[in-house]
Write a structure and sequence with these properties.
This protein is an alpha+beta fold. It has one domain (about 5-94): NE0471 N-terminal domain-like (2-Layer Sandwich), CATH 3.30.2020. The chain has helices at about 50, 75-80; strands at about 5-10, 15-20, 25-30, 55, 60-65, 85, 90-94. The strands form three sheets. It has a three-stranded antiparallel sheet, with helices on one face.
Length: about 90
């Protein structure tokens, strides 16, 4: 696992986010590639105006929306960096 906090973010069009991580990595992530199905707590993210309400929760080190939806920073880091998430020697993402 990376366990690297997100330190900056900016919402873009088409459910994309520009992210900056604590180690200096910057990049854009397409949430359509992260979230397989926009249902439940993620359903409101389909609305661009709601999506744009994303904020950075410094305590959690990740992004959150007003309804409590959040995404693990390790998952986002993996998508931006192209490096897989590995837990106990096993690749779990990417």
């Amino acid at each position: 696992m990376f366990m690297i906090d997100i330190t900056g973010m900016r919402p873009l069009q088409a459910r994309q986010l520009e992210l900056t991580f604590a180690d200096g990595l910057k990049g854009t992530v397409d949430l359509d590639k992260v979230i397989s199905q926009y249902s439940g707590i993620f359903a409101p993210l389909l609305d661009q105006n709601y999506f744009a309400q994303v904020s950075l929760n410094e305590e959690l080190g990740t992004i959150v929306w007003p309804n409590g939806a959040d995404i693990c920073p390790d998952v986002l880091y993996s998508h931006v960096s192209g490096r897989p998430v590995v837990v106990s020697g096993e690749r779990v993402l990417n």
